[in-house]
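INTERNAL AUDIT FORM
Audit reference: QA-55
Scope: verify that the stored structure record matches its stored sequence.
Auditor: D.O.
Record contents follow.
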Amino acid sequence: MAFYGDESLVGKHKTIFDTTLRDGEQTPGVSLTNEQKLKIARQLDKLGVDVIEAGFPISSEGEKQNVRAIANEGLSLDVCGLARVLRKDLDACIDCDVDMIHTFVSTSDIQRIHTIKKSREEVTAMAIDAIEYIKEHGAKCMFSAMDATRTDLDYLIDIYKDVEKAGCDIINVPDTVGIMSPSGMYQLIKNINSEVNIPIDVHCHNDFGIAVGNSLMATEAGASQVQVTVNGIGERAGNANLAEVVMCLHSIYGAKTNIKTEYLLETSKMVENFTGVHFPPNTPIVGDNAFAHESGIHTHGVLEKSDTFEPGIMTPEMVGHRRRIVIGKHAGSHAVEKSLQEMGIQPTAEQLGEILVKIKDIANKGKRICDADLYAVASSVLGRNLGKETITLKEFSVMTGNLTTPTAVVRAVIGDEEVVASNYGVGPIDAALKAVEDMMGGYNKIKVRDYRLEAITGGSDALAEVTISVEDEEGRVVNAQSASTDIATASVDALITAINILLEKKKLWSMQ
């Protein structure tokens, strides 16, 4: 297998320190519940992360309880708590029974003079005292020289050497304001690595969009651990993205980590759902378009051999994803034919050409082509109904209000059986979609994978267009759209349409 990075990293092991629950939660507008934090911690353990920073215990009593709960969860990974070089902070971490305490103090002149107002000598003394106190209490210790990349190099190396002598287990080099260049980060870590003998960890912020690049250059220069967050969330523009760092290390450099990469997408989706911070479809590794192809030239090549227009050293299956052939204005006949075959439709060459023309006409009007659109066009061109609807919606209602938990009731005929289901949610749409999912529970395990809402007209009677993707237990995805002045109606209609198409596809797949 060919690798495309620094060959000295091939086969080398790097550890992953995840700070989603601490720095990630500092994303403006994000606040996780105790239960959500525990679920994310369990998921990161399943993923194979080596260390998680569970929180900053001194910040509040609730935060302290969260960190203690995670530390006592019995996870395989190490649980770390954050603390300033202050006894009350350190005691708060010790009280939480964490495996590691990550203590920090500002070392750059701009922060030291204007925030903590201490001399360099005082800062060094505080750092040494904190390290010794942590070690006296039997915990592992990480020390961060905050704003390291803007700290005088000689002083930075001196303080790292001093904490090493005090018993520190690992030092962290934070690019606190995301100001370092990749070449600058390489040289900085190289310099530090030549002076200290304990492991080096890096924490890179993404203010200039190069946190991942800086993290990778740090590993080239000798850093043995990288701090990351799921989806790159965090203060300001966020942190180095976990999935991107890991897959670069694995696929480009040939390095090793303990990460089980097949859970990357699953982990990203969980954090996206809990935080409400949605990543765009063109996000590397985990985005909807990461392994999607529309261009006729690209789809033809990928259908013949995936490596033609994909990296090859990283496949969708490696990260828990699936390859998608997208039908749109740039689609070619090979992509349309393949998509129709997956629906059990075998058009003649003439019919295929007519379907392709109609699809492009629709796309040229600015409409995104869904599976339901292709299905409808093919039905029209072939002059027949290509499948019987498994679900026929009879009625649904949603109850909501200031004093009422949004609740939805759905009645439909599935096959020959009438089914009624109800559920509640954080809003009327959530309740309606959950009710439909519950209705399907006894028949097929189908879940909503993606939901998008767009107003396509203005005014109080605006027409809303809903696009929904549904996924079965084997990861197959189908999408459909619906438009209505009633968002709940459009949502349920789109969901029912998508499920019907997916069930038709499943019948075909089961016969193959």
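Auditor finding: record pair retrieved intact. The radius of gyration is 27 Å.
Action required: none
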